Every structure is written in structure tokens, then in C-alpha cells.
Write a sequence for this structure.
């Protein structure tokens, strides 16, 4: 706010006109961003009218027939609607839980390592999959879990029958969750480690003088110290309980595992772009977006209340 | 923190060391395995004899790969995409972040603009309407479909905006009074000061473009226009098939060109694996600066 105090004398020295001229370039700079956003972010939002139409591409958004909520009735009565909704929720929630817990445990374990270069090596290796695309990772996963891949060789060497991981609906969800944690754990681990470094070292020294062992220190100093970031990450992830991981599932799944792995996004994709049921697919997408935006708003509000987090 | 290692501490250190070693290996071993398979003979690879070292070592897969037109064509699309897309993105992000970093006292409409952009972070039209818009603007089957629609990454823009706002304001007061315009203020003062933030955003943008594959499937009708990751996804994924039987799935494992496929996947990962260790610090900085603000 000291700014206003400084601008005041400036306005006295130079008349207002110079200031008014000076905001024009600011608007000008925003033009490209505004145009791209208008067309490719707001355009599709207006395109959502197709969820209330019987959309025919040749007739466009304006010429297609309006059908009210028919498309929504249709999707809510689809035989696999509840299965898909459940799959989405369970996969997303398990990913969130393990995606928060595993890196937390790793960060705590890593904190006990004294040598800096070891910490850095581990961090580098754990963080690597985060930067590779799901395409690459899916290729690796198919290879490792294939019928005569390394995992099955290991199982065979212990005398058991090979398991068809990628085609078994009971195993498949585990693969999805496990590989998602594998890809993402480096990211959250770094956030946790950064928070741990921020803890006042005097607290540990004081605790040691009081006779607290390492375990007690973790419970009473480290965990409370990084509680804000844990709460923040947990709260923000509320907004993604309908995002089960579209790209990953699309690459890895197959009809054998639809029952346990087909989620909203993959169903919308197949309905809309493979079966050409544009309007019901858009309606399904809209349903998901509306629920998501409500959840995201709640989560950001809570994050702001709990930890004073703001994005801008 | 000097403590004499008690017996329980020693036990803990050993278990901790084993656990962390396993976790560390999990990040690297799958890719070593991939490399080993690609350097083995196809029969050994198909029979599942390869673990971490090539069996019946051969360069065959890479020799085939060097003649594979599809691979290099899609690689070229990816290179173009990374170049055009990154330049476009950085330009838009910088040009948008600067005006929005001005104080409301200087730029009254700032708040309205910020909301205009931020809303798109929380609500979108979804897959199908976005596809329709991209189709009706004539971008299908052109490289522009891959670089224009996502050119302004709002998250990156907000990150840079926050960075700009935290730089000392005395400099631009002085510069503005000297008659410097906003453009020269941005390019002469703000950009040089913000190089660390810019570098991080640049790296994430490059990686994002290199890794993106689904937009290629969606917006490119002709496989000739697929970027590398999209091309690779067609080698891997079964989801484009109408139906698949158990036998078919089993036979995929013994699919003939296994080592060639593996070699291509490995080459797709190689650029990132090669540069990532050296740039890691920027990513770490970007993550801790970008997501944890007080």
C-alpha cells in the first residue's frame, strides 16, 4: 500500500493524461491471451449447449434441435452409469489416499538419512517417472506385467501360476493405483521435504535435551510441522475425486477390465468420439464438470480457511 | 544432532536403507529392463528371459528403428511442436502475466481480467465441446491444434504473475518516470529479474509438449501428423480395438516385434532421462515456489 503514497506526488508532478495513456499498452498485451482463452476455453463452455440438444455436427450449435434434459435422463438411466460413477470415485479416492501417504512415509524415512548426496540420489530416481508421459510408462507397465514379463517370472519362480494382470478385473485397479503412486510420489515427496526443511532445528535440539527419541520427535515435531501442507494437499485433492486419471486408464485398459476400470472420462470418450453420441457424451461431461466445480470451490474455500492458501 | 547410535537405531538404519534402496530402484529399474529388452534378441525377449542385462546382445532393434519412417516422421512433428508450442506459450504467458501483475491502482481492470482467466482453471467445456470448437475453427489435422488451444497455461501464468508482483516496485517507478514504456519495462527489467521463474516455466512447457499424446489421437486424423508420443501410444494401447479376446491379449505378449517396440519406447523416454538429472533443481524450485505459497 506504500505504492499509493508514492504515486500521489507523481500525479502532481505529471498531469493525469500520462497515466491514462500508460494503461493502453497493458490492454494491448492482453489481447492475444484473451482471444485464445475466449475461443478455446469459453468457446467450449458455450458449446455445452449441445448437452441440451440433439446435436448434429452439420447443423451446428444453433441449428440443432433442443431436447431439454433428455440427454441427462438418458445417461442417468444407462445400465453402467452407477458402475462407472463408482469406479471413478473408488479409483480416484484410493489414488489420492495412497498418493498422499506413500510420499509422506518416504519423506519421513528420507529425513533420517544423514548423507546429503544419498538423499539427492534417491530424490532424483524417485522423481524420474513424474516427467515421463503416460505413453512411455504404459509401455513399461505392459512390458513388466505381461504374461512372461519379469513380475510373472518372479511369481513362476516361487511356483505359482502366472497372473494376467492387465486382463484381470481384480488386479487391474491395483495396477492403476500403484502406477499412479509410482509416477506421482516424487512430486509430493519434494513438497513434504521442503516443509520438513522449514522446521526450526532448535525444536529438535530442545526435544533431544528433554530426552525425546527419534520416534517421539517425528510424532511431536516433524508431523505437526508439516501438518499444514498435508492438510492443504488433502483439501485441494477433494476437487479431483472425479478425475480418476483419463490418459492412464485409456492407455492401459481393455474391454476385459471395463467392469472395474471404466470411468466417466473414458466412457465419455468412447460415447462421444467413437460411437458419435455427441450430445449424451457432452451431457455426461457437463454433469462431471458441474460436480467438479462445486467440489473444487469447496476445497479452495476450505484450503483458504485452514491454511490461508490463495492462488493469486 | 549427535547421538550415539543405539542398537535400535542401527536396526532402524538398516531397514530404512533397504526400504529406500527398493524405492530408489523402482524409479530406475523398469527403464533399465526396457533397455535390456531392446538390446536382446527378439526370441529371448519374447520368451521373457531378459531381466536387467541383454540376452543374446544385438543392435538389431535399433538398426530397424533407424529405418523406421513412422518413428522419424513423428519425431519431427514432435520437434516442431515443442519449438512452436513453447515459443507461443512463453510469449502468451509473459505478455499476460505482466499486465495482471500491475497494482489495481495503476490498472483498474486488472481484477476483471484475472477472473476472466482464472475461471477457466476451474470450469471447462469438456472433451466433446472442445473437440467441436477445434474442428469448427479448422485446426483439425494441423499442428496448430496441438499448440494453440492450450497456449495460455493459466497455472503458469498465475505463477509468473505472483513472481512479478513480489519483485521490488521501486525500479519500475523510476523507469516509468524516465519515460520507459511498459514493454521495455517488461523486457528490460522484469524478465531479467525473473529468469529463474521463467526457466522453470520454460522447462515444464517443453516437457508438457514433448509428453502430450492424447491431443494427437483426438485432433489428428492422419497418422502422418502424429507427434512421437501419440505414435508410441498406438504401438502400446489396446483401447482403440473394438473388441479383444483373452487369446488375443495373451498373444500380444508374444507379438513379433517386441524388441523394436521396446526400443522405440526407450528412445521416446531418452531425451527426458538424459537432461532431467541436470535440470532437476529447476523443477524442484518450480514445484516448491509454485504450489506452496504461505
Amino acid at each position: 500500500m506504500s505504492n499509493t503514497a508514492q504515486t500521489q506526488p507523481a500525479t502532481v508532478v505529471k498531469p493525469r493524461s500520462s497515466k491514462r495513456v500508460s494503461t493502453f499498452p497493458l490492454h494491448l498485451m492482453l489481447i492475444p491471451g484473451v482471444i485464445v482463452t475466449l475461443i478455446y476455453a469459453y468457446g467450449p463452455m458455450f458449446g455445452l449447449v449441445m448437452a441440451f440438444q440433439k446435436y448434429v455436427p452439420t447443423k451446428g450449435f444453433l441449428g440443432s434441435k433442443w431436447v431439454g434434459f433428455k440427454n441427462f435422463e438418458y445417461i442417468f438411466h444407462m445400465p453402467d452409469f452407477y458402475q462407472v460413477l463408482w469406479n471413478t470415485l473408488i479409483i480416484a479416492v484410493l489414488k489420492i489416499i495412497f498418493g498422499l501417504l506413500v510420499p509422506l512415509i518416504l519423506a519421513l524415512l528420507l529425513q533420517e538419512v544423514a548423507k546429503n548426496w544419498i538423499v539427492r540420489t534417491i530424490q532424483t530416481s524417485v522423481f524420474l517417472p513424474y516427467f515421463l508421459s503416460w505413453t512411455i510408462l504404459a509401455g513399461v507397465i505392459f512390458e513388466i506385467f505381461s504374461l512372461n514379463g519379469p513380475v510373472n517370472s518372479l511369481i513362476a519362480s516361487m511356483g505359482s501360476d502366472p497372473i494376467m494382470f492387465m486382463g484381470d478385473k481384480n488386479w487391474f485397479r491395483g495396477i492403476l493405483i500403484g502406477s499412479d503412486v509410482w509416477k506421482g510420489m516424487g512430486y509430493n515427496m519434494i513438497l513434504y521435504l521442503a516443509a520438513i526443511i522449514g522446521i526450526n532445528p532448535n525444536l529438535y535440539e530442545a526435544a533431544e535435551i528433554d530426552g525425546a527419541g527419534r520416534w517421539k520427535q517425528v510424532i511431536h515435531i516433524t508431523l505437526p510441522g508439516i501438518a499444514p501442507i498435508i492438510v492443504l494437499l488433502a483439501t485441494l485433492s477433494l476437487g479431483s475425486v472425479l478425475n480418476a486419471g483419463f490418459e492412464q486408464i485409456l492407455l492401459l485398459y481393455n474391454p476385459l477390465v471395463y467392469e472395474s476400470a471404466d470411468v466417466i472420462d473414458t466412457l465419455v470418450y468412447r460415447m462421444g468420439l467413437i460411437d458419435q453420441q455427441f450430445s449424451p457424451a457432452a451431457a455426461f461431461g457437463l454433469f462431471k464438470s458441474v460436480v467438479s466445480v462445486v467440489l473444487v470451490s469447496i476445497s479452495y474455500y476450505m484450503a483458504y480457511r485452514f491454511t490461508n492458501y490463495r492462488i493469486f | 544432532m549427535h547421538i550415539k547410535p543405539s542398537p535400535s537405531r542401527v536396526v532402524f538404519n538398516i531397514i530404512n536403507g533397504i526400504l529406500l534402496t527398493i524405492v530408489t530402484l523402482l524409479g530406475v529399474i523398469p527403464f533399465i529392463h526396457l533397455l535390456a529388452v531392446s538390446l536382446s534378441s527378439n526370441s529371448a525377449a519374447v520368451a521373457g528371459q531378459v531381466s536387467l542385462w541383454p540376452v543374446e546382445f544385438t543392435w538389431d532393434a535399433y538398426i530397424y528403428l533407424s529405418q523406421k519412417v513412422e518413428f522419424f516422421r513423428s519425431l519431427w512433428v514432435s520437434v516442431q511442436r515443442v519449438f512452436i508450442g513453447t515459443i507461443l506459450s512463453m510469449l502468451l504467458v509473459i505478455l499476460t502475466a505482466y499486465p495482471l501483475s500491475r497494482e489495481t491502482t495503476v490498472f483498474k481492470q486488472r481484477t476483471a481480467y484475472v477472473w476472466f482467466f482464472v475461471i477457466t482453471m476451474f470450469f471447462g467445456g469438456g472433451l466433446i465441446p472442445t473437440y467441436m470448437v477445434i474442428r469448427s475453427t479448422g485446426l483439425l489435422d494441423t499442428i496448430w491444434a496441438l499448440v494453440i488451444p492450450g497456449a495460455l497455461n493459466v497455472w503458469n501464468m498465475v505463477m509468473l504473475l505472483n513472481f512479478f508482483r513480489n519483485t521490488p516496485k521501486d525500479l519500475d517507478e523510476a523507469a516509468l518516470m524516465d519515460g520507459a514504456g511498459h514493454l521495455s519495462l517488461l523486457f528490460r527489467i522484469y524478465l531479467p529479474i525473473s529468469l529463474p521463474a521463467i526457466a522453470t516455466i520454460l522447462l515444464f512447457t517443453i516437457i508438457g509438449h514433448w509428453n502430450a499424446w492424447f491431443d494427437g489421437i483426438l485432433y489428428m486424423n492422419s497418422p502422418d501428423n502424429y507427434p512421437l508420443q501419440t505414435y508410441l501410444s498406438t504401438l502400446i494401447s489396446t483401447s482403440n480395438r473394438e473388441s479383444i479376446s483373452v487369446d488375443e491379449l495373451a498373444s500380444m505378449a508374444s507379438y513379433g516385434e517386441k524388441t523394436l517396440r521396446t526400443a522405440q519406447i526407450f528412445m521416446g523416454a531418452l531425451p527426458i532421462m538424459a537432461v532431467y538429472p541436470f535440470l532437476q533443481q529447476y523443477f524442484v524450485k518450480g514445484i516448491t515456489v509454485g504450489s506452496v505459497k504461505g
